[in-house]
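Hey L., structure's done. Input below.
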Amino acid sequence: MNKPYEKQGEPSLAERSYIWKTAIGLQQVDGLTPSKYLVETANANIQGEISIHEAEQFIADYYENRQEKNLPEDRTEEADKVSVRIASVLCGQSFKLSPVELLSIHKRLFNGIYDFAGQIRNFNISKKEWVLNGESVYYGDFNDIQAALDYDFDKEKAFDYANLDARNAVKHMAKFIADVWQTHAFSEGNTRATAVFAIKYLRTFGYDVSNNTFEKHSFYFRNALVRANYNDHKKGIKATTLYLDCFFENLLFGYNHPLQNRGLHVDAKHSITEKLAMKKALSADRTRDDPTEKKNPRRTDERE
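Output:
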């Protein structure tokens, strides 16, 4: 006899703690800092005093009833609302590998904050990057965003992970996530939406993302995405997912790669030859006493 469906409950105290650390840490990618009230609300949820849905309502009510209005340059309200919404999304277990999922996450996080929440941008963009000495990644043309997303997701759905060990599977997933980010489907909020999407996707493989990697290194995550999508062959700069691989190996497998933003800068004191040597050395190190070598991630049927 089939058992009935069960209503999802809230994660454990430890899981809630890591979820909130991730949610708050991800605000760093846009230089935002949540308020003391948000932190107090997060702690109440972590301790089980209020549910995640109550926490979200508390933050909404706080800004609805707040007498003092934020100055245009004060984005604390955005930081608070997006933090609690990220926590709420990550407390859930639903997921579908589809561009619709990415758009839905963006709408969920930024509804009422950006007029274009969940909407594909209708103009081309660039952004000066510190890590690139003020240059910009070439983002996807707005006319082609839907087609680009459809292509990336269809290719990922068709990919067979069956014969890959866990580390190489994650390397492939990192490249997929970097490609989705490079499309930059939205006018703002791309990195935070992509990070939430990535976490939920990785969970469907059975990976545990309960640690402080996103909390402490979310700006590194963004810079690693930048370096995965930037080429300047005249200067010997080639797009590489090496930095992103290191981030995910720390996140998922307990590696302790140093995640230092200055090391991602295009002027860092490493030539291309040295970087290739570093990559080779990293690969050699990973094959010795690799904690993932016996793991083989499995897909859930939610992917279908």
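The chain has a mean pLDDT of 88. The CA atoms of residues 41 and 254 lie 29 Å apart.

-- N.
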